[in-house]
Amino acid sequence: MLTTSNLKGGSSKTTLTVHLAQYLALRGLEVLLIDLDAQASASHYMGLSPDRLGADIGTDDTMYSVLVGERRLEEVIRTTYWPGLSIVPATVGLADMEYQMAERHMRYRSALAMQDLASLSTMLPFYAVLDRALSELPVDRFDIILLDTHPDVSFLTLSALTTSDALLCPIPVGMLDFASTGEFFRVIHDYTESLREADARRPMLRRARQPFDYRFISIVPSLYDPNHDSERKLLNFLKYTYDQYLLDPVLYSKAMRRSSLERKTLFEAVPGTGKNADLDPRTASRLMDSILAMGRRIEDQIRGVWRA
Fold first, then answer.
1. φ and ψ at residue 148, rounded to 5 degrees
2. pTM
3. Does domain 2-307 have CATH number 3.30.200.20?
4. Burial, 301: exposed, middle or buried (Cβ in 10 Å; 0-12, 13-18, 19+)?
5. What is the pLDDT of residues 34-91, one digit of tens each?
6. Does an H or E element contain 171, and which?
C-alpha cells in the first residue's frame, strides 16, 4: 500500500499517482486507486466526475460511507476503462469525514486520558479506521493499493500515512517547495512520536508494526525544467539532501498541463503535429521517458518488498 502525499499543493501529486497507477496496470498488476482528496482530481482523471451529466457518484459511493460504517469497501470499488485498474472515487462530500474523525479523536483522547478501559476496548483511534476498512479486502484481491491524499496534514491524510507501507512524495524543483517538503517530514516525525506515546498508554492495542515504518520512501522531483539553471542547481541540492531516496525528475511541459485539463494522461495523449494532436512528438517522448523511469523505479521497489 503506497500513499502519495505532500504538504504543498501544486506538486503534481495526483498527476503522478494516476500515471503510476496506469503504468503498474500496464505491467500486469491489479491496482486499486483510492481517491482520498475531496477535490476528486484522480476520479476526474479516470472519467468519474460527479459534475458530469448523468453521473451517479455521491458521497455514499466514496470512502466516507466505508469509514463511517455504512458500506463495505468492496461495495464502493469501481472498475475503470483502464484494464487492471480499479478506483474508489471521491466527491466534495468526503471533506465531511474530517469532522467525523475530529469528533472520534476527541472522544478517544478523553477516554485515553481517563484510562477508561471499558470505552477504549470498543473504540478505535481515528488513524486506525482506514486501516480496518482496508483490511476487509482479501489479501489477493489487489497487488497494490495507491492512496491519493489531499495536500495537507488532515485527519484523513494522517490516516493514509499511518496505514501505508510506502510513501511517494513529489516535490517541485523550487526553493519554497523544498522548504515545504522539509516541514512535511518534520510533521510526520512529530506525529510519529506522539502516536507511539499514545499507543504505549493503551495496553490493549498491539500493532503488527510501528506506524510510519515504511518499506520504502521515494521522493520524486516534479515539474522539472532542465533549461533553467536555477532548477538544475536546486536539483543537485535535492540529490545531496535526499540521496538514495530521490528518484530521477519528472519533466514539466505546458503541453502536459493542457493534456491534464482534458483529463488525459501521457498514456492517452495523442502525439503529433495535426489539429487533433495533444502534444509535439518530441515533447511527448521526453515526458514519457521521465514518467516511465519513475514507474520502473517504483515497480522495482515494490517487487523488492515482495521478494523480502
1. -100, 120
2. 0.91
3. no
4. middle
5. 999 999 999 999 988 766 655 678 889 999 999 998 999 999 999 999 999 999 999 9
6. strand 166-172
